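Dear colleagues,

For the upcoming journal club I promised to circulate an example of a predicted protein-ligand complex. I picked one with flavin-adenine dinucleotide because it came up in last month's discussion. The inputs are reproduced below in full, followed by the predicted structure.
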Amino acid sequence: MKKEILVYCEQRDGELKSVSLELLGIARTLAENSNGSVAAMLLGENVKGLCKTLVEYGADKVYVADAPELKYYLTEQYAQASSSIINETKPNIVLFPATSIGRDLAPRLSARLHTGLTADCTKLEADADGNLFMTRPAFGGNLFATIVCPDHKPQMSTVRPGVMKKAEPDKSRKGEIVEKKIAFDNSKFAVTLIEEKQEKSSGTDIADAKLLVSIGRGAKTALAKAKELGGALGAEVSCSRTVVDEGVLPQSQQVGQTGKTVRPQLYLALGISGAVQHLAGMSDSEYIIAVNKDKAATIFNVAHLGIVGDANEILPHLIKEIGARKSA
Ligand SMILES: Cc1cc2nc3c(=O)[nH]c(=O)nc-3n(C[C@H](O)[C@H](O)[C@H](O)COP(=O)(O)OP(=O)(O)OC[C@H]3O[C@@H](n4cnc5c(N)ncnc54)[C@H](O)[C@@H]3O)c2cc1C
């Protein structure tokens, strides 16, 4: 029998999170290497309409639990539903997104299922026997550790958004939809949701941005100019951790190991040294331009185009040039 790889596919307000499709992409590769199959686990209320998309993105099967108890994410309700599906279907591997929901749910499940969990994996590989090799940064990102979980099943890991690539959707793919009825134990529901408030965010999430103007310590006083350049280019402004630590930009704009993983078409790094923890979040960008006054800065090792100079002096030239080209 084929060993199943189960992907927890997160949805919010009936909309699939992009990371769910990225996880289906890597699950397909793992399934091909280990002669396995891919299943999606979808929880929520009125979410059955999303099953077709999950099949198009690589699921052979979708386990869907559609129930009023699952309308909003609540740890106990979701833990009961997913542990019930996992106990019944006995997958070999379970993948979760390292979102706030995945980070809450996956450890609770690993304790309930008496198995291990490797968090924030940057690489996943499987052998022909279905063993999962989970690679993640260790010791502050200075080395990568590959972790195996040979004695307990399922093998579980979380992966951050933007790390894996989505597979191309195939509208002709066929899959099986399996509806799961969950026998909830209401006596364990200790938390009641009274109200949900959405934080209003301005602009595009940097993880989804096509163009990023990113500032580091060397350009932190040039935030206004970086925003002006971002406006001219249609780019979002992101930053290194130093800039967050110094209170210049919020953590939601941080790129890197403890920030977000980005993969834009253009990453313009201004006054960023290129520490390994920063590179972990942006080195897969399609085109990297780095501006740094130190010609030996590590960022130049990953840059496609490097400019040695003062970011504060170069920024006004870039703004002027982009403006001139736009009005030409
Ligand atoms: C566990 C752990 C997790 C971490 N996670 C992250 C993370 O997610 N993201 C992250 O970014 N960092 C992270 N860090 C911090 C990381 O190690 C670096 O300290 C940080 O990335 C450095 O930020 P920076 O490049 O802005 O500053 P610096 O390293 O101080 O570099 C500033 C650069 O600007 C240049 N410069 C100075 N003035 C100018 C100027 N006028 N014009 C042009 N260039 C100039 C300098 O030559 C230098 O290269 C983490 C660290 C640890 C230990």
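Two points we might discuss: The first strand starts at residue 3 and ends at 8. The longest helix spans residues 18-34.

See you all on Thursday,
B. R.
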